[in-house]
TrEMBL record:
This is AAA+ ATPase domain-containing protein. Its cofactor is Mg(2+). It holds the Pfam family AAA. Gene3D superfamilies: 6.10.280.40, P-loop containing nucleotide triphosphate hydrolases. Residues 237-376 form the AAA+ ATPase domain. It catalyses: ATP + H2O = ADP + phosphate + H(+). It comes from Hevea brasiliensis. It comes from the Eukaryota. Keywords: Hydrolase, Magnesium.
Length: 450
């Protein structure tokens, strides 16, 4: 055996020499334990034990939490879309742990949805991260604002902000991708409110000449494809349309067809409900992207009449009160304020284009002027196809001759077609209606000659 190993062996104590040491140590521990129980009462021992446990529990490393708040408290800004997105997203996360849930047929959904009630929370897991959502509503004198709070360990702050919220948005888009439910908005003193937009009009169903419909759809397609071009030429990505013509020629149906073609929401802005210039700016600012802002019967507002005609300005002082100036409206649709929101269509309708101020009619404000004329034979064929599902009929020739000789609106012909589902009966009603209109026209012409 090597010398070094022998030396190590000599320094290791033997088992017989360790036994007395162990016995002495055990005796000392027993004496200390007995002394402790004799000196420390049982209640004091329990108190000291609990204090020590609490101390070590507090000093044990506990995770720190951060909170994101999703609310609508930013003054003057658009509605925080994350609120609606979160409502949709969480509707799929509600489980048996939520004893009280809100259910109903909510706006924007075809089926039943589940939602959180005030004060409820739900836990979502994303890539091992636990995110707690809390929902409530702040009450104030103006009503209440919904808000969400997201709590999570602070070490995941960047991941939650950069990845998890993107995941929430992507999930929402996937949920609504199959068919976007369009909305039509109306405005009162409390702002914009909406219901589902269910108008079924399409360009195929419009009683208009084919060439005009094609010109409109081509213009819309060009608008959608030119986002970068608008940016290049330093113009807001928007386009204005003026729909003018007599009542009943299909102006509202054309707007509905445009909305369905573009998949845009509709904002119906009634100028009569605008109280001031600041109210007008607020209304335009809070209308969302991918929308058609509709200003119907714009000629009914005296503030937009041709300023060169003195008779209009005189009538303004009698019954019509101007809540805003023409310059304010122009600034909202083609000035500095128009750049605050993009990807929007502004559609104006009027029965009397000639009374509008030329400043309102120029390109950049009303880019495309669409004359909604009386019904043509081609438009009538579309109506018959829509209402009776036929392409030809023996009465067409006589009806076409009467339509060419008179001014009759698509709406009036559609009303006659609705009187029966039987083609012979419905077209007979149209023919009688046109003959009666022709007799009235001939009588008026004879009176004029006399």
């Amino acid at each position: 055996m090597p010398t070094s190993v022998m030396e190590y062996a000599r320094v290791i104590p033997s088992v017989s020499s360790l036994l007395p040491l162990y016995a002495s140590f055990s005796t000392s521990l027993m004496l200390l334990r007995n002394a402790y129980h004799e000196l420390v009462p049982e209640k004091l021992e329990s108190f000291l034990t609990s204090k020590l446990e609490n101390y070590f529990r507090r000093t044990r490393s506990k995770p720190s939490y951060d909170t994101f708040v999703i609310d609508d408290s930013w003054e003057g800004q658009h509605r925080n879309k994350l609120i609606d997105i979160s409502i949709f997203y969480l509707s799929t996360k509600i489980g048996h742990k939520n004893k009280t849930i809100k259910i109903g047929k909510f706006k924007g959904r075809k089926g039943i949805m589940a939602g959180l009630v005030n004060g409820e929370e739900i836990v979502d897991i994303y890539e091992g991260i636990e995110i707690t959502w809390y929902f409530d509503c702040r009450k104030d004198e103006d009503g209440g604002d919904e808000y969400f709070e997201l709590s999570f360990e602070d070490k995941y702050r960047e991941k939650v902000f950069n990845e998890y919220l993107d995941h929430v948005i992507r999930t929402y888009k996937a949920m609504t991708k199959e068919k976007r439910v369009l909305r039509i908005y109306s405005r009162d003193c409390n702002g914009w409110d909406w219901i589902e937009f269910q108008h079924a009009a399409t360009f195929d169903t419009l009683a208009m000449d084919y060439e005009l419909k094609r010109a409109i759809t081509d213009d819309l397609d060009r608008f959608l494809a030119r986002k970068d071009y608008y940016k290049k030429i330093c113009r807001a990505w928007k386009r204005g349309y003026l729909l003018y013509g007599p009542p009943g020629t299909g102006k509202s149906s054309l707007i509905a067809a445009m909305a369905n073609y573009l998949n845009y929401n509709v904002y119906n802005l009634e100028l009569a409900n605008i109280s001031s210039e600041s109210d007008l700016k607020s209304a335009m600012l809070h209308a969302g992207r991918k929308s058609i802002i509709v200003i119907e019967d714009i000629d009914c507002n005296s503030g937009v009449h041709d300023r060169s005609k003195s008779d209009n300005s005189e009538s303004d002082n009698s019954n019509n009160v101007r809540q805003f100036t023409l310059s304010a409206l122009l600034n909202c649709i083609d000035g500095l304020w128009s750049s605050c929101a993009e990807e929007r269509i502004i559609a104006f309708t009027t029965n009397h284009k000639e009374v509008l101020d030329p400043a309102l009619l120029r390109p950049g404000r009303m880019d495309m002027h669409i004359h909604m004329s009386y019904c043509t034979t081609e438009g009538f064929r579309v109506l018959v196809s829509n209402y009776l599902d036929i392409k030809d009929h023996p009465l067409f020739e006589e009806i076409d001759g009467l339509i060419r000789s008179m001014e009759v609106t698509p709406a009036s012909l559609a009303e006659e077609l609705m009187k029966s589902d039987v083609a012979d009966v419905a077209l007979g009603e149209v023919l009688n209606f046109l003959k009666q209109k022709r007799m009235e026209k001939d009588k008026i012409d004879e009176e004029k000659l006399c």
